[in-house]
Every structure is written in structure tokens, then in C-alpha cells.
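quick one, 183 residues, struct below
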Amino acid sequence: MNRKLTLLQNEQIELGRKHGLQEKQIRLYAKPSYNFLQMQELRTAMENGITGRNLRFLLKPSLSHQEMCRIRRCLEQGQQPMIPYPYGKILTAAAAVLMGLGIIALEAVHDRPYLLLNRESVTLKQGDVFDASSYIERNDNRAGKLILPVDVDTSEPGRKAAVYRYVTGEGEIVRILYVDVHA
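---
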């Protein structure tokens, strides 16, 4: 038992062992920076086969356990979350151009449902209201249900993930907008 962790955090470590995770995997989440609910999401992700490159989307203590859960489910469905803005303005500009080309190609060639956001990340001040609809670039207007994120908490600083979903008879489209809240 790790004395730096709470009883519930240590329980997640023991559950990982009981469910067959390797010690190397357990060490990824057995850290005081994760609360027990975040540890549960990380453990569940690894138990469900999420590893390596995909796991890095979840290994962020700044994500709430709800955000981790949504991202984990997206990955379990074989969908890739959008990569956050870590590489500078050049890549963001290139992504915007490619996204614009994708819109044209999508409308011209494919008759499939789509949901596009107008950015990958946004910075808000602590306490600002998050208006989920203002970040939608375009979405398919066919029979389907657009589910906007409703629980983006801006009362505390940190990185949050706003998960947008568009559900149609053909399936579900998930897009993630990273919200950086600063004091």
C-alpha cells in the first residue's frame, strides 16, 4: 500500500493487479496527481486495450474523470480525439487549411454526416461562461441529434475537454474541443 495515496486510490491499484494489468501499466496511473476516479478511468482504458499513442490522450491529470471517460469511450469506438494545440501557430494554420479543404471535399464527394468545429482549443478566463454552440463550424442538418457539451466547468483553472456528439442512423461522430481555463 502506497501511503502517499488515499484508500480509494490504492484500491484502484489493487484492482489493476487483480484484473491482470502489468506493474508498468499500473505505474502510469498510480500517482498522487490523479484522484481515484481518474485512476479508475485510466485503469479501465488499459483493461480495455487502450495503449501507447492512444493512452497519451488520457494521461493528463488536468482532465476531469468525466472528460477522461468521454475520451476513453471515443477511443474504444475506434475514433481518434482531436490533437490539442501543442505545436505552434504554423500547425494550427495548416490544420485550418486542411480542414477547409476537407469541408469542400466532404460536401463535393461524400454524402455522409459530419460535424466540424471551428478550432481545436480555446482559452477562457476562470468563471467565463462556456458557449458550446459558438465553436461549431458546420454540421450536417439531416435527421440526427447534435449533443453539445454541458458540463464544462470554468470555475477552476485547468484543461478541460468539451465533447461534441452528432448521432445519426449511420452512427455517431465525436469531436473534442480542449478548453484551457486560466485564472
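The helical segments are 7-18, 23-29, 36-47, 52-55, 65-76, 89-109.
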